[in-house]
């Protein structure tokens, strides 16, 4: 809709109610396509402008919005525009892209709980400041009617505030009491209710003291702890949902030779499915026609594509690189290997969520003790005063407030927030609230290879053995192919030879003409060369053949990280889906003696579970789709920012840069953070040892108790800041 049309509709309300024939025609048009694409390599503001410009320039695209945090672009386009059309346009400007299913992800895009806590925190702060101002007047000597007026004004602010901002605690306390359990929220709720109730009673009977400021201050500090805890957990969204969203939502089914797009839910076993070059396999199947090369890196971690021809078994999620393939469906939708992997991840995630924090474990004995002390104080003073309910309730409330687990609730979130900030400055993002505690317990580290310890991009080596004229021919041929080895050659700063009639032969390589002779770059058997032991592509030019070898570039900081983890006494294991030769070479280079090659995704997860079952606390470091189940199954997990969306979501910690070195810093700081948490519990306990007896003997009013509680919370927060 144009600005003019919008203005007309605003100026003419009747147009909205009774649209014109032209407007009715517009409203009956087929709705626009809403496409969501993953952008694993997007990392900065320049990426946003580049991607959005490329998408907006594509015919039929109406709008494109990049979410850099989630590394996605949401595109609104004409119905005939598909993800398969947009992916090449993004690759042309240098961005890898995969289609996601927005329907599956819709539930994970909101943060209502965080916004609700933050809104209640703001209300509590505003009310606390106003009531404190009124209290200053009372403390300054206001008496009789003036004092009562200030108390009533405070009541009108505090009672609605406590009822509103205390709802998260009241709901949790009621839920706990319904099942016969005492959690931290039960004493918190009782303290809020008693402080407000006593204050209202004192106000009604013109008492000298009211404690509305104590009740609202208590609410504020409790909500602050709750919000810090929520923020530390907010990024830990479901990896299983992310993984399921990677499933291709549509497939091209061949019906009597006619291409028919269908939702994946309508694809049945035995159907014939066409997969074009650059597309991901939508189903598990067997190739019946066509030759190509298939990139299995997402599922197996193999650094190089494999030849695809009739009879090859392929899995959903693999990428078809060079030629069209026809598959006969073996499994689709919920029965596919990709969906089964999502189920593995879901099971592993549910096991990990059973981990309890130090605060939760402390609360299991702390909460019952608080209630015993409070009710004992009430009973004792009722007996001592001959039934003075007002005095006994005041002391009982003071005990509840002074023992209120506010410092206990802040002990862990404050440390997590401080440690997370320190690690963030080092390039480490903590996504999960319990990740630091679990990381401090790690004794074994399992690394993936391709894309984790290495960059996952081949680099040509020993080019001096290839004559410069032949290397120029190889570069010319390579620039006509999308194969990873060819792309590595194409990036060389070499003037390409004048090769004509370039043609890619799917599954084999590229050929062309140099003068009157045919030149080829590709597989050894195709060019007539003798295979070598290393990863290589082969050139046939001028009657001679040459092997051009490649190696995978080591990720910066990989050697430093492995050495630091070994210095900390941790066992190191390398588990990869790549070939034995490639894994052995990297393991030898890094000094890792324990390694496994050719591991499938389920086998990686089984290795991690086996170590866990033997009593080891495993840190898994990986980046691919094939690592997702293992990442979720590990005690704690890390992935680089370049990892696939599902891998990053399955991880508890993300490395923001290319450098692996901060992994050693993360394990060291995690140990420091855990020690600070234990210290905070010690501070809270020491505070209670001093303050509780004062409350029990009636020497602390509810207001003094709230101030003491606030002091303990501030002390805990300052101790947490020592991490910085």
Reconstruct the topology from this structure:
Layout: H1 3-11, H2 13-17, H3 21-27, E1 33-38, H4 45-56, E2 61-67, E3 72-77, H5 83-92, E4 98-100, H6 102-105, H7 112-139, H8 144-165, H9 167-178, H10 185-204, H11 212-233, H12 239-245, E5 250-255, E6 258-263, E7 272-275, E8 284-289, E9 292-295, H13 297-300, E10 306-308, E11 313-314, E12 319-320, E13 325-331, H14 337-352, H15 358-384, H16 389-402, H17 406-425, E14 428-430, H18 435-440, E15 444-447, H19 449-453, E16 454-461, H20 468-478, H21 484-490, E17 500-505, E18 509-514, E19 517-522, H22 524-527, E20 536-541, E21 544-554, H23 558-567, E22 571-575, H24 580-590, E23 595-596, H25 601-613, E24 618-621, H26 628-633, E25 636-640, H27 645-650, E26 653-655, H28 662-696, H29 702-721
Parallel strand pairs: 15-22, 15-24, 22-23, 24-25, 25-26
Antiparallel strand pairs: 1-3, 1-4, 2-3, 5-6, 5-7, 7-13, 8-11, 8-13, 9-10, 9-12, 14-26, 16-21, 17-18, 18-19, 19-20, 20-21
Helix pairs in contact: 7-8, 7-11, 8-10, 8-11, 9-10, 10-11, 10-16, 11-17, 11-29, 12-14, 15-16, 15-17, 15-28, 16-28, 16-29, 17-28, 17-29, 20-21, 23-28, 28-29
